[in-house]
C-alpha cells in the first residue's frame, strides 16, 4: 500500500507539472507587416470601398451606417495596424471603378481571379466560399450544364457571372445591380434561376422572407475571398496581411466570422481540429506523465528487489544455524517459518507489481515511439544525464545508462549547437526561463542531419530545491522541412520556381540601402494571351518554364531573375554603373527570343523590355517598378519585340494618356460625344450611296486616332461602341419618320468590342424598337480583329450576317492585310486605305490597283476607296472600275443637319 501511495502522489505531481507545457511558433511576417505599415503616411485615412447592398458582407444598417463581415473585418485589420478607415459604399461596378481610378485605397471584400489580379493586388485568402443556383421550391437543378438554353439572373460584374460566362454555355443572362433583386425576380416567378453567391443568398432569403426559394447545392466556383488594393500599393497590402494574421492569432477574426457568416457556412477541418486541441494536449501530457511513472516505478522495484535478495540471504543463514540447534529453537523455527510466509507474500506482491510495471512500460514505449519522442533526465548533483535506449539506437551513440553531461554533449552535438544547449540549461537554472526549450541539429546513425526539439522542466525536492530536470526529445525534422518548404513557397513562383515579387522587392531594397547602382528590367511576353487562348494554359505554363530556363542559362551573377506574375519577368542588374553594359544584357535577352523560343515550330515568341536605372531614375522600389512598367509599355507600343530605357517623357506621355481617358469617361458620363457623317459616293454616277458614322468629342479637339486606342486599352470602348450604335439607329429612325430616302450608315466596330458578349442581342433589340431594318446599317471591321480570337470572331461575323447586316473590311492594305483573308471572311465590301490609294493610284502602279479591285469583284465584293482628295485619283479609280469613293474630294464629315440634306444628292463628276 505504501508503494501505491507514492505512485499516486508522484503521478499527481507530474500531471500538475507537465500540464504547463505549450508548443507554439511565432509568425515573423507580422513584424515585416508592421515595418511596412510604418511606411504609410502618419495620420493618413485609408478609404475603403464596398458594395452597398451585399449582406451579410457589406450593407447599410437601419441607422444608415456601413455594416457587415467585410466592414467589421477591414476596420479591425486596419485598427490593429494603427490605421484609420473611412468607408464608402456604392454599387459594385462603381466601387471597382473607384479603386481602378485611385479614388479609394482598397475594397474590403473581393473574390480572387487571374483576370482581376491584372487590375488589383490581393491579400492572402482569409476564407473560401462559393456560388449556388437558387430556384423556387418545386424547381430543382443539380449541375450548371442544366442551365443550357435557360435565362439566368445574375448580379452585375459579380464573380459568379464572370465564371458562368467563361463556361461557354448557351445561357441568356439578365444582370441586375444586387443579389436581393436577383432573388426577388425568381421569387415572384419572372425568372426560374438566379446564380449568386451562397452566403448572401441565404442571408437575403432569411432577411426579406423569400421562403419560396431554395438553394440547390450546385457549388459554383469555390474561390478565395480576399481584400483588394490598387496595383503596387505594397505598404497597404503588407499592413492588411499583417492585420489579418494578428486577428486570426488572437481569435478576433473567428469572432467576426461567427457573428456574420458562421450561421451560413460549415467550419473547416482545421477549425474542428482547433476545438479539440486541448484533448490532444491532454493525451500528450498523459503520455509524458506515464513515462516518468515507469521510470520511478523501475527505481522502486530495484530497491525492493535488493531488499528481498538481502532478506533471502539472511534466511538461508538462519536456516543453517537452526539445523544445528533443532531441539533448542523449535519455537524460534516456527516463528521463522511464519516470517518466511510473510516474506513470500510480500515477494508475490512485488512480483505482481513488477509484471504490471513491465506491461505499463511496454505500453508507454509504444506510445513514445508513436509520438516519435524519447525521454531524458538530468541529475544536477552529479551532473549526469539519462537518455532512453530509443534515442541511443536512433542516433547511433554508445553511452552508459547515466553519463556525464559534458561527454553526452560532446558526443552528440557540434560546437555551436552544444553552446546553444548549454546556455539554455544555464538560463533555466538561473530562473531566466520557465522551461528548457531549444531546437538543435544532430546527426543520426546514417550521418544524416536531423532536427530535434529538447524540452524539459525541473523537479523540486522537499526543500524546494532543484535537483533533477526531466524532459523529452522530439524529432522535428519533417516539421522543419515543411517550414522551409512554406518559406520557399512564400518567396518563389510556383510555376517557374523563380524568386517572386516579394523576394525581388526585398533584394532591390537591399541593393538601394547599400547605395549600389544598377537597373530594373521588366520583361513582358508579347501576345501571351493568344498563346493561352489557342494552345491552352498547360502549354502557356510550359512556355513560362522555358523562358525561366533560358534566362537562368545566361548564368551571370549580376542578374537576379524573378517572375512577377502573368507573363511578366522582373530582372535586377546588380552593381552595374555603365548604361551600355545594361543595354548589352537587354540585347542578350532579346536574342534568346529571336533564336530559340518558338511555339510548335510555327510561331516565334517575342518580348518587350522596359528598363529603369537606380539611383539615377529613383531610389524608391515602388517607383522603379512603375518606371520599368511604363518603359515596357512604351516598347510594346513601339512595335513589340523591343526594349526601352525609361525617361521622363514616357511619364508625361502616360499622364497625357490618363488625361485623355479621364476626358473620355467624363464625355460618356455627360453625353459630350457626337457623330459626324461622311458620304460615300458612287464612282460612276456621283450619287450618294451611304454614310460612315465618325465619332468625335463635342468640346475637345482630340483626334479619334488618339482617343480610340486609349478607349480600347482603358476598357471603355464597349460603352462607346454601344453609344455609337444606339445613336446611329435612332438617327436613321428619325430620318425615316421625315420621309427621307435613307442610305446605309456604316458603324465602326473595334476588336476589343468582341468582349461585349451581348452586342448582337443589343443590336437586334435596337433595330426592332426603332423599326429600322438590318439593311439600313453596315458594320466596319479591321483585320486586327482576328488577332483576338479567330473562332469567336467568325461566330460573331456569321451572327451579324444571319441578322441580314452587311460587313465591310476597313483599312485594307495596312497592318496584317492579306488577299487570302478575302476567300473565307463573310464580308460584303472592302475599303481601300488612303495609304494604299496614294501609292497604287500613281500611274506606274495603277496595274496593281486594277488587280486588287478585279480580284475583289471576282469574289463578289464591292470596293470603296477612302481618303480620295483630288480629281486625278478619282479619274483613275473610274478607269479601274472602283465601285464607291469616300473622301474630302466630295465632302468632309458632316453634322447631322448637313447630312440630312444630301441623301439624294448627286455630286458633279
Automatic annotation (TrEMBL):
Organism: Clostridium formicaceticum
Coiled coil: 308-370
A molecular function (GO) term: cyclic-guanylate-specific phosphodiesterase activity
Enzyme Commission code: 3.1.4.52
Annotated Pfam families: EAL (PF00563), GGDEF (PF00990), SBP_bac_3 (PF00497)
PAC domain residues: 436-488
Residue ranges annotated for the EAL domain, each copy included: 657-907
NCBIfam families reported for this sequence: GGDEF, sensory_box
PROSITE patterns: EAL, GGDEF, PAC
Tree of life domain: Bacteria
UniProt entry tagged with the keyword Protein biosynthesis: no
Domain GGDEF: 516-648
Lineage: Bacteria, Bacillati, Bacillota, Clostridia, Eubacteriales
The name this protein goes by in its record: Cyclic di-GMP phosphodiesterase Gmr
Amino acid at each position: 500500500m505504501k508503494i501505491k501511495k507514492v505512485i499516486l502522489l508522484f503521478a499527481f505531481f507530474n500531471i500538475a507539472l507537465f500540464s504547463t507545457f505549450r508548443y507554439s511558433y511565432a509568425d515573423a511576417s507580422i513584424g515585416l507587416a508592421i515595418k511596412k505599415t510604418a511606411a504609410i503616411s502618419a495620420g493618413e485615412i485609408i478609404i475603403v470601398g464596398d458594395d452597398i447592398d451585399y449582406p451579410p458582407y457589406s450593407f447599410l444598417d437601419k441607422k444608415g451606417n456601413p455594416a457587415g463581415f467585410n466592414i467589421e473585418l477591414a476596420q479591425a485589420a486596419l485598427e490593429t495596424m494603427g490605421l484609420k478607415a473611412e468607408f464608402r459604399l456604392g454599387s459594385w461596378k462603381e466601387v471597382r471603378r473607384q479603386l481602378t481610378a485611385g479614388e479609394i485605397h482598397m475594397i474590403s471584400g473581393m473574390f480572387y481571379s487571374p483576370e482581376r489580379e491584372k487590375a488589383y493586388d490581393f491579400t492572402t485568402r482569409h476564407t473560401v466560399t462559393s456560388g449556388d443556383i437558387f430556384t423556387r421550391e418545386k424547381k430543382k437543378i443539380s449541375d450548371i450544364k442544366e442551365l443550357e438554353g435557360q435565362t439566368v439572373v445574375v448580379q452585375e460584374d459579380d464573380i459568379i457571372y464572370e465564371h458562368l460566362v467563361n463556361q461557354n454555355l448557351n445561357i441568356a443572362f439578365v444582370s441586375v445591380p444586387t443579389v436581393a433583386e436577383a432573388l426577388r425576380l425568381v421569387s415572384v416567378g419572372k425568372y426560374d434561376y438566379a446564380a449568386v453567391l451562397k452566403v448572401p443568398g441565404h442571408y437575403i432569403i432569411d432577411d426579406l422572407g423569400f421562403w419560396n426559394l431554395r438553394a440547390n447545392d450546385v457549388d459554383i466556383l469555390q474561390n478565395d475571398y480576399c481584400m483588394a488594393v490598387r496595383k503596387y500599393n505594397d505598404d497597404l497590402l503588407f499592413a492588411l496581411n499583417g492585420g489579418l494574421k494578428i486577428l486570426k492569432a488572437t481569435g478576433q477574426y473567428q469572432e467576426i466570422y461567427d457573428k456574420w457568416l458562421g450561421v451560413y457556412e460549415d467550419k473547416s477541418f482545421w477549425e474542428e481540429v482547433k476545438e479539440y486541441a486541448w484533448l490532444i494536449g491532454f493525451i500528450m501530457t498523459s503520455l509524458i506523465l506515464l513515462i516518468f511513472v515507469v521510470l520511478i516505478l523501475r527505481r522502486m522495484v530495484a530497491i525492493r528487489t535488493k531488499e528481498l535478495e538481502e532478506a533471502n540471504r539472511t534466511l538461508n543463514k538462519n536456516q543453517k544455524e537452526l539445523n544445528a540447534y533443532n531441539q533448542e529453537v523449535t519455537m524460534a523455527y516456527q516463528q521463522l517459518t511464519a516470517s518466511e510466509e510473510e516474506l513470500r507474500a510480500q515477494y508475490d506482491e512485488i512480483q505482481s507489481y513488477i509484471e504490471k510495471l513491465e506491461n505499463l512500460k511496454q505500453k508507454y514505449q509504444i506510445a513514445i515511439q508513436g509520438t516519435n519522442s524519447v525521454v531524458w533526465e538530468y541529475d544536477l548533483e552529479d551532473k549526469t544525464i539519462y537518455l532512453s535506449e530509443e534515442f541511443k539506437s536512433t542516433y547511433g551513440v554508445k553511452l552508459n545508462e547515466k553519463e556525464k553531461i559534458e561527454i553526452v554533449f560532446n558526443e552528440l552535438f557540434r560546437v555551436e549547437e552544444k553552446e546553444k544547449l548549454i546556455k539554455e540549461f544555464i538560463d533555466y537554472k538561473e530562473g531566466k526561463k520557465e522551461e528548457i526549450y531549444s531546437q538543435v541539429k544532430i546527426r543520426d546513425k546514417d550521418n544524416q542531419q536531423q532536427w530535434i526539439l529538447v524540452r524539459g522542466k525541473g523537479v523540486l525536492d522537499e526543500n524546494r530545491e532543484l535537483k533533477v530536470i526531466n524532459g523529452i526529445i522530439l524529432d522535428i525534422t519533417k516539421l522543419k522541412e515543411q517550414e522551409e518548404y512554406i518559406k520557399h513557397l512564400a518567396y518563389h513562383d510556383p510555376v517557374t520556381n523563380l524568386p517572386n515579387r516579394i523576394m525581388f522587392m526585398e533584394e532591390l531594397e537591399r541593393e538601394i540601402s547599400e547605395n549600389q547602382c544598377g537597373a530594373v528590367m521588366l520583361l513582358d511576353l508579347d501576345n501571351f494571351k493568344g498563346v493561352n487562348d489557342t494552345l491552352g494554359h498547360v502549354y502557356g505554363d510550359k512556355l513560362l518554364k522555358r523562358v525561366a530556363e533560358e534566362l537562368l542559362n545566361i548564368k551571370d551573377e549580376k542578374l537576379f531573375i524573378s517572375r512577377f506574375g502573368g507573363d511578366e519577368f522582373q530582372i535586377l542588374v546588380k552593381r552595374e554603373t555603365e548604361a551600355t553594359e545594361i543595354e548589352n544584357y537587354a540585347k542578350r535577352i532579346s536574342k534568346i527570343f529571336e533564336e530559340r523560343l518558338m511555339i510548335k515550330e510555327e510561331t516565334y515568341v517575342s518580348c518587350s523590355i522596359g528598363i529603369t536605372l537606380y539611383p539615377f531614375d529613383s531610389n524608391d522600389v515602388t517607383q522603379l517598378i512603375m518606371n520599368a512598367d511604363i518603359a515596357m509599355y512604351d516598347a510594346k507600343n513601339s512595335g513589340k519585340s523591343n526594349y526601352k530605357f525609361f525617361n521622363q517623357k514616357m511619364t508625361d506621355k502616360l499622364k497625357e494618356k490618363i488625361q485623355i481617358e479621364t476626358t473620355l469617361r467624363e464625355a460618356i458620363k455627360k453625353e459630350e460625344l457626337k457623330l459626324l457623317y461622311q458620304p460615300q459616293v458612287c464612282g460612276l454616277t456621283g450619287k450618294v450611296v451611304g454614310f460612315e458614322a465618325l465619332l468625335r468629342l463635342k468640346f475637345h479637339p482630340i483626334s479619334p486616332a488618339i482617343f480610340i486606342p486609349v478607349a480600347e486599352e482603358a476598357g471603355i470602348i464597349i460603352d462607346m461602341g454601344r453609344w455609337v450604335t444606339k445613336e446611329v439607329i435612332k438617327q436613321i429612325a428619325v430620318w425615316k419618320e421625315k420621309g427621307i430616302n435613307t442610305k446605309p450608315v456604316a458603324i465602326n466596330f473595334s476588336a476589343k468590342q468582341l468582349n461585349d458578349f451581348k452586342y448582337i442581342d443589343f443590336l437586334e433589340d435596337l433595330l426592332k424598337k426603332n423599326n429600322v431594318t438590318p439593311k439600313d446599317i453596315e458594320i466596319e471591321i479591321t483585320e486586327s480583329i482576328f488577332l483576338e480570337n479567330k473562332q469567336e470572331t467568325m461566330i460573331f461575323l456569321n451572327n451579324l450576317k444571319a441578322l441580314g447586316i452587311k460587313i465591310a473590311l476597313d483599312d485594307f492594305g495596312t497592318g496584317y492585310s492579306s488577299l487570302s483573308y478575302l476567300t473565307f471572311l463573310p464580308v460584303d465590301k472592302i475599303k481601300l486605305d488612303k495609304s494604299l490609294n496614294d501609292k497604287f493610284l500613281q500611274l506606274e502602279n495603277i496595274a496593281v490597283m486594277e488587280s486588287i479591285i478585279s480580284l475583289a469583284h471576282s469574289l463578289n465584293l464591292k470596293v470603296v476607296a477612302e481618303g480620295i482628295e483630288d480629281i486625278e485619283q478619282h479619274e483613275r479609280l473610274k478607269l479601274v472600275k472602283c465601285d464607291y469613293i469616300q473622301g474630302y474630294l466630295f465632302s468632309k464629315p458632316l453634322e447631322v443637319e448637313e447630312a440630312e440634306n444630301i441623301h439624294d444628292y448627286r455630286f458633279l463628276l
